[in-house]
Specification:
- The complex is a heterodimer of chains A (323) and B (328).
- Chain A is α/β, with parallel strands linked by helices and 323 residues long.
- Helices cover 28% and strands 23% of the residues of chain A.
- Chain A is built from 11 helices and 12 strands.
- Chain A has a 6-stranded mixed β-sheet with strand order 6-7-8-3-9-10, with helices on both faces.
- In chain A, helix 4 packs antiparallel against helix 5.
- Chain B has one domain: Orthogonal Bundle (ABC transporter involved in vitamin B12 uptake, BtuC).
- In chain B, 78% of the residues lie in helices and 0% in strands.
- In chain B, helix 4 packs antiparallel against helix 5, helix 8 packs antiparallel against helix 11 and helix 12 crosses helix 13.
- The chains are: A alpha/beta (323), B mainly alpha (328).
- The interface between A and B is medium-sized, with 29 and 21 residues.
Chain lengths: 323, 328
């Protein structure tokens, strides 16, 4: 177990858990590794500290009478970047809901910082865990700035207005998601991709230590997909933000996640490093489609390539061409 | 600073409408006369009686009812995420109408001046309870709220029509007067109760205004941000319903205030519910006071029903706004 963070000894720990009380720290009311590399020894390059931020144990969950997940067990260490992949209907969004404390599991437990997630009050969780769901209700008439400002809610006192710190955070979140140009526009007027980036800005405005994303790149073009994934990866590397991402794009998952969990019909089919999980045997069995798995020439990560049906059944070269 | 300008303007408009209401009528008072009558309250003089016994209670009731209906309409629109939501859609006014009609037709209302509002209030409470229970069975979702509200509204309206069809002419007239809005109640108890409930209710709603903002993001996102959406919706629903119940029980069915005022105020005070609630309350109070003054002075000595005026003025204003919007 990690030793408790001691006053004055913060410099020497790359991670402290649990955080000291507010005001007792040098600069953060919760500790997580520094924003600027080298200020306190930096984070990149060090091994991850061995504590589990999220640990699922034998989780079973579902809706009303329909079971969706069965016997899910995995853990996410602090500072890790986990990807959850799987075909449609394999239970990814259900898993998202159990981790974000919106769907109580039927059996099994979810431990967040070694405490039962469902026994901890919501508002406490919200100060450290942020989630970006796939679909939300977009309130009519709200501007982008006010929408992102709602993300500061867990940190605001009842009648306190937004102070300079809050405003600075909102501005920074808008800037990092490339949404500063649309900050005064109405949310309804934005395109799907712009809305998605604004949604991420809102989640980041919560100043989380754990960020959970449900298909964050769904409506984005390839440029913005890369930008969003790069942003998440930068936050993960520089500030130690723990990230759990649900992705449908296997190649993005391979490039940006340190470990993967492959779901199949509500249970874990494979988990581990991308090279171990993304094999053509696994993918063919789970997704029921023929693929070729190469490696990305730049990053050496696995690259999944789909094979059109006509190549499998064609007997001559001319049959393989597109009519 | 822009926000403060809006509030001052609204307060000025409210002050002006109160002044108009005080001065216009069968006897017109100038502002100096009003000031004199308020400062030196002389019993027995006719102007004093008119001011204190007739106009001031009426104005207080109009201000309180306008504020209460507008604020609760604001809350319902936020909860249901529907710009058409107000106490009608949720069947609350229907319950009040049914309760009042039963009171009048059965003769209970003749026993004491307080009995008619009491019957209306009971009808409202029964209706709110029914809508609440029906919706709570389905996790208090918007869908079930609107559905149960509309159903109960229809049932109440049908029963009101049935009772009207079967009763005699005198009771029919009394019912009609109530159903179209009647702010001329003079019993102080019937004004104090809505005043207290509206003030307290508005205070609590402003307290929860941030939660209201967060709830507009939907239940899932609201839960991510740390509130219990179902509990918060239930609390806000009950408070807004009670405010409406108190106001509608005394004043009758006054339409369009809860629907139109929040929409108008959104343009000026923005979407944050803390300022929107207060702006709606002040705007609603001013609107109803003006409509009531108009209703009782335009073809004096005949008093038009205030609910009709609010409906017409509100409807026409809305119509013009929508025309402008679609053309721009």
């Amino acid at each position: 177990m990690l030793p408790l963070c001691q006053r004055g000894k913060h410099r020497d720990n790359d991670r402290c858990y649990p955080p000291l009380q507010r005001g007792k720290h040098r600069d953060n009311d919760r500790c997580y590794p520094p924003l600027t590399k080298g200020e306190r020894g930096g984070f990149a390059g060090k091994k991850f500290p061995l504590y589990n931020m999220i640990k699922l144990h034998s989780l079973a969950a579902g809706y009303k009478n329909k079971p969706v997940l069965s016997d899910i067990s995995f853990s996410v260490k602090a500072g890790d970047c986990l990807g959850i992949i799987g075909p449609n209907g394999s239970g990814k969004t259900t898993l998202f809901r159990t981790i974000t404390r919106t769907l109580k599991p039927w059996s099994g437990s979810v431990l967040y910082n070694n405490a039962d997630l469902y026994q901890t009050p919501r508002h406490t969780i919200a100060t450290t865990m942020a989630a970006m769901p796939q679909f939300i209700e977009y309130p009519f008439g709200i501007t982008v700035y006010d929408f992102v400002a709602l993300g500061r809610y867990p940190h605001l006192k009842r009648f306190a207005p937004l102070d300079a710190h809050d405003i600075a955070i909102i501005d920074r979140c808008l800037e990092s998601t490339d949404s500063t140009s649309v900050r005064s526009r109405n949310l309804q007027e934005l395109s799907g991709g712009e809305r998605q980036r604004v949604l991420l800005a809102q989640a980041l405005a919560q100043e989380p230590t754990l960020l959970i994303l449900d298909e964050p790149t769904a409506h984005l073009d390839i440029g913005h997909q890369a930008a969003m994934m790069d942003l998440v990866q930068t936050l993960n590397a520089q500030t130690g933000l723990t990230v759990i991402m649900i992705l449908h794009d296997l190649n993005l998952a391979a490039e940006y996640c340190r470990s993967l969990v492959l779901l199949h019909q509500g249970s874990i089919f494979a988990q581990g490093a991308p090279a171990k999980v993304l094999t053509y045997q696994n993918i063919e069995q789970v997704y029921n489609t023929v693929v070729v798995v190469n490696s990305n020439p730049v990053t050496q990560q696995p690259n999944v390539i789909l094979v059109p049906q006509r190549y499998l059944t064609a007997k001559t070269a001319s049959e393989r061409e597109i009519r | 600073m822009k926000k403060y300008n809006v509030f001052f303007t609204l307060l000025a408009i409210l002050g002006f409408s109160i002044f108009l209401a005080l001065s216009l009528g069968t006897m017109t008072f100038s502002w100096s006369e009003i000031l004199h009558l308020i400062l030196h309250r002389t019993e027995g003089s006719i102007p004093g009686t008119i001011l204190w016994q007739l106009r001031i209670p009426r104005i207080v009731l109009a201000v309180v009812t306008g504020a209460g209906l507008a604020a609760s309409g604001c809350v319902f629109q936020a909860l249901l995420r529907n710009p058409l939501a107000d106490s009608y859609t949720l069947g609350i006014s229907g319950g009040a109408a049914l309760g009042a009609t039963i009171g009048i037709v059965s003769g209970l209302a003749n026993i004491h001046a307080l009995f008619l509002p009491l019957c209306a209030f009971c009808g409202t409470i029964v209706c709110i309870y029914a809508v609440y229970q029906l919706a709570a069975n389905n996790r208090f979702s918007n869908h079930s709220l609107i559905l149960s509200g509309v159903i109960l509204g229809f049932i109440c309206a049908s029963m009101v029509l049935l009772l009207i069809a079967l009763t005699n002419a005198e009771k029919l007239y009394s019912t009609l007067v109530w159903l179209t809005g009647d702010l001329s109640s003079t019993d102080p108890a019937t004004i104090i109760i809505p005043f207290i409930m509206t003030t307290l209710g508005l205070g609590v709603l402003v307290l929860f205004s941030r939660e209201l903002d967060v709830l507009t993001l939907g239940e899932e996102k609201a839960a991510h941000l740390g509130i219990d959406p179902e509990m918060m919706r239930k609390i806000l629903f009950i408070i807004a319903s009670l405010i409406t119940a108190a106001c509608v029980s005394v004043a009758g069915v006054v339409g369009f205030v809860g629907l139109m005022v929040p929409h108008l105020m959104r343009r000026f005070s923005g979407n944050g519910h803390r300022s929107l609630l207060i702006a709606s309350a002040i705007g609603g109070a001013a609107f109803l006071t003006l409509c009531d003054t108009f209703a009782r002075t335009v073809i004096a000595p005949i008093e038009l029903p205030v609910g009709v005026i609010t409906g017409l003025v509100g409807g026409i204003t809305f119509f013009v706004l929508l025309l402008r919007k679609s053309s721009s």
